[in-house]
Specification:
TIM Barrel, 244 residues, 8-stranded parallel β-barrel, EC 5.3.1.1, binds 1,3-dihydroxyacetonephosphate, alpha/beta, 39% helix
Length: 244
């Protein structure tokens, strides 16, 4: 087995019902790679009806299966709504909700138990990069956020430098290659088949830079925010991955 190519879209807190037409416009684009869209939770079930071969995922889940946790959503609920994947540990959740590596790992265990594939996010802040701490930060986040039950079949890891998200700034090819090589090496050492976990890059991926990013070693796809909202942007990114 080798790592599967995945073009994943994270709609974040964007999208009302009318946005589902973008999924119709993506139909048939998924030749040669997997495609995932993670809309807001309110759109998961209707999105499945528009998705065709495109997988639908959530953007977070609670570590518990049910209970007194107002406003939260469990992995079983996501699965029941039609999701097959869930993004966990996105830097916006780490920053806005104080999520720790241990909480992300606990959520991932719950997600795997519910039959979901996890997309676990790691990434350094600009201050950490400037301090030369990037590789240590990524190694620590991988060690703490990826649970022991992770396999290439149930886990995807996304490298998203915090300073590249929504800023139009991207790391150099060498910087992405360095982090992806570390992630591949670390996962291979820890898991038997970890060498086959799909590794995504995320942060200001656009149609104009996608092909260049997908040519980098150990980059198996992208986790795309803003440019996943419109089929006219995300479609060319999927095409670039299929051709990479
Ligand atoms: O956070 C991201 C995806 O999860 C990246 O967002 P942008 O593509 O908007 O920079």
């Amino acid at each position: 087995m080798s790592a599967r190519k995945l073009a994943a879209g994270n709609w974040k807190m964007n999208g009302l019902t009318a946005a589902l037409s973008e999924l119709d416009d993506l139909a048939g684009r998924e030749n040669g790679c997997d495609v995932l869209i993670c809309p807001p939770a309110t759109l998961i079930t209707p999105a499945v009806a528009h998705a065709g071969e495109i997988a639908i995922g959530g953007q977070d889940c609670h570590a518990k299966e049910s209970g007194a946790h107002t406003g939260d959503i469990s992995a079983a609920m996501l699965r029941d709504a039609g999701a097959t994947h869930v993004i966990l540990g996105h830097s916006e959740r780490r920053a806005d909700h104080g999520e720790t590596d241990a909480q992300v790992a606990a959520k991932a265990v719950a997600a795997h138990e519910a039959g979901l594939t996890t997309v676990i996010c790691v990434g350094e802040t600009e201050a950490q990069r400037d301090a030369g701490e990037t590789l240590d930060v990524i190694a620590a986040q991988l060690a703490g956020s990826v649970p022991d039950c992770a396999t290439a079949a149930n886990t995807v890891v996304a490298y998203e430098p915090v300073w590249a998200i929504g800023t139009g700034r991207t790391p150099t090819g060498e910087q992405i290659a360095e982090v992806h090589a570390l992630m591949r090496e670390t996962l291979s050492a820890r898991f038997g088949d970890g060498g086959d976990v799909s590794l995504l890059y995320g942060g200001s991926v656009k149609p104009g830079n996608a092909a260049e990013i997908f040519a980098i070693d150990h980059v198996n796809g992208a986790l795309v925010g803003g440019a996943s909202l419109k089929a006219s942007d995300f479609g060319p990114i999927i095409d670039a991955l299929a051709q990479a």
